[in-house]
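Hi W., the methionine sulfoxide complex you wanted:
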Amino acid sequence: VEIQASLTDFSNLSKLEKYEYSLESIKALCESESDRTANLANATSVLKTAFGWWWVGFYLVKGEELVLGPFQGPVACTRIQYGKGVCGKAWELKKSIVLDDVEQFPGHIACSAESKSEIVVPVLSSTGEVLAIIDADSQYVSHFDAEDQKYLEAISGYLSQIWG
Ligand code: SME
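Structure:
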């Protein structure tokens, strides 16, 4: 994958093709770089560019809370407590959450009034501990489904392998 990946026209690609492209791009970008921040930053750029989501980024587990990491989109809340919001709940459950309508989730943390649906996917260590949460937000309700979950979990699995 060329570094000019961001210039590719994604409009004619299916969702599946965008995910295949994203996973391959992320692997190509990260395989020669060991710095985690650099790799997570490029991963958010690949996803934002391929899908055009309102917001996509990482929350990193630091002690008892999640702290905002690399992201693309509007400014977001910087700290989320364990079990709080969708991200904190995914940390607690160690499971992905697909949310068709954020207003239906009690305790959803609204970083932006534009966000209508959301998917969060944990990055798990080899021992099953949550290292980080991938969060993607859409301006449209019911934007994410099981296919998004499957491929974001594949990306998460790759990132956990190179976490370091
Ligand atoms: N909605 C998330 C907070 C993060 S922002 O959407 C970027 C939550 O409820 O955990």
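The first strand starts at residue 55 and ends at 62.

W.
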